[in-house]
Amino acid sequence: MELTRPTVAAGLCVAAIGSDTAGSIRCPAALCGIVGHRPSAGLLSAEGMVPLAPSFDTAGPMTQNVRDAAVLLEILSGAPIMDGLDASVSTLRVGVPRKDFFADLHPEVETCLEAALAVVSKLVAEVREVNLEVARCRTVFDAEIYEYHEKMAAETPELYQPSTLFRVRKCAGISASDYIRARRELQQQRHAAESVFQRVDVLITPTTPAPAPRISDLFPLAEPELRNFETKYLMRNTSPFSVLYWPSTSVPCGFTTEGLPVGMQISGRPGQDAAVLRLAYAYEKATEWHSNKIETDWA
Description:
The protein is of the alpha+beta class. Helices cover 41% and strands 15% of the residues. A hairpin with a 5-residue loop joins β7 and β8. It is globular and about 55 Å long.
C-alpha cells in the first residue's frame, strides 16, 4: 500500500487504491503531487481491508488527475460521480476556515494556497472566510484501534513492528462508558459542523501545513516525537474531515522552491463527492500543476 503513492506520482500506473483513516490518502497525495480523494462515509466498502479504526476507515482513489479519480470512484461505487464533472462551478460558494487550518503554515505552502484561492475566486460565485470548529474523537479512534488489535498484541507481540506495537498499546484503558460518551459527543459535533453549509457549499484548506519532510530529518525522531509529528502536524488538516465523514480531495496547487509539491484540500457536505471533485477539476483545468513532474533530491 505504501508504494502506491510514489508509483502513481512517477507515472508507473494510472491509478491506485489507497486507504484513509485520518489522512493516509490525502497527505501522501499532497506530498507526492497527485490527486487523492477520501469518499463520503459508506460510499465504498471497507471489506477486505485490515481495519485501523473501522468507523473512520475507507478506501479511495489516488490518481494523476481529477478526472481519473472521478472515473475510478464511479466504477468502484456505482454512484453517478462523472455526471456534471465538466459543469460550471460559477454558482458554488467556497468557505475558507482559516482558524486552526491555516495556523503555522510553512511560508511556501501559504504562498501556494493564497495563489490557488485567487484562481478559485475567479471560477466560483463567492469565496468567504468561515468558522469551523474541529471535531475531536481521540477516545473513539483509540478504542476502535485497541479493540481490533488487543488479542493479537497480547498473544503475538513479536509479529508487530515495534513502533506499531507502541501505538497499539497506547490505546489501551478506555472504558465502555468513555467510548459511549465520546460517540455521543462526536455526533453532536458533526451536527454542529454541518451548519457551515448554510453559508457555503465546499471548504478549502491546505492539505498539509508543510511540504514533505526529508527522511534524514525524521530518522532521528523517537517514536513519541514521530507520532506527534504525524498526528498533530502532518495530518492536522485532514483528520477533521475524516471525523466529520465529509468527502475530501487533495489536488496539486504548486511547488516550493526546492521542487516539493503542495496540495490544496477541497471538502464538502457528506454525499457531495461529485461537487467536491467538480471544483477540483475546474481548478485543475485552470492550472498546470498536476502535469508538472517532481524533480528533487529525496535523500
